[in-house]
Amino acid sequence: MEGGEGPAVPRVGLGTIAREWGRIGCTGFGGPPAHIALLRRLCVERRGWIPAAEFEEGIAATNLLPGPASTQLAIFTAWRLRGLPGALVGGAAFIVPGLVLSGGLPALFLAGSPPLWVSGAAAGAGSAVAAVAVHAAGGLVPASRQRAGLGAAARGRWFGYLLAGAAAAVLLGPWMVLVLLAAGMAEVAVRARGAEPRVRRRMTWSLPPVLAAPATGGLLALAWVAFKVGALSYGGGFVIIPMMQTDAVHTYHWMTGAQFLNAVALGQITPGPVVQTVAVVGYAAAGVPGGLLAAAFAFAASFLFVVLGGPHFERLRADAGVQAFFTGAGPAVIGAIAGSAVPLALALQSLWQYGVLVLAALWLFAARKGVVGALLGAGALGIAAALVGCPVG
Question: Which InterPro entries match (predicted)?
């Protein structure tokens, strides 16, 4: 598939792409499921720009890539309509609205002496983040189990990868990516042993090594953390949390544990991709320039993956080695997302916050309500707690 090749598509004006993708960027509350639904409604149902089957292939193809899948789908659909100019305009229009909010709100939430109601809202919303992480992991389980297969050995490996990812999120912090890569490569090796020799040769590809993080803080370290989020976070979304938390809080001391919870909550309640959390971390590290630098490095990888890889998506999807890698890395990612709830919960500082966490879990799992409602409700409870004198920071 390539912009201008493959099935014929209408030539859509860049102004139309900017308007429509910008509208989704402004109204896309609820994370990747909402983004995908809005893009499908626009491109397939309302405008008929892209056939339904091709749109589904685009979802599958972008899920093969590391980084934020819904952002890459937005870039891919715009690229499909107008090639490179469409990808740049559509991707920017999708990302910028949430980025503006993610760049402005930290001035309130991360200020040295914010108003009491702001501190309460941040502490309340941050309290719910651990429950939101588990909820996000749970939503990924059915498709991953189906991908793994029905055999007892395949199910056993799936569960092992899941546990390995969860343990890595709790114990390894940013080095968790090594476990994700190892799980993927382990599944490649297992499946290659049972493949025909010709297929086995195709499956013996390797991944690039993970670079060491800079030893000291500063813009270089910030750029590395942001790049790692955008280029190495298989599964996108919440898997960025364990990858960032250790670096942002413990290694470089850009923010406290409570402030990191606030950053994750901001990434959830603002429209657009969850990966915009990295812009809040960048703001905490180096102000507005740091937020812009972090966003640039985090999202540049998505643009490059789509623009350079788009013509090869069909071949990648059909490659046995690629499929095997994601069969192994997928459950490790899910485990890592769920495991991130442990350090997130441990970062809570007051007893009332654990009560909010329990209520958020009941809202998400018992009442089966949405993530945005959970975070807004938790923020409201935090304001109430602050007003009655509970500690909020």
Answer: Chr_Tranpt_l_chain, CHR_Transporter, Chromate_transpt
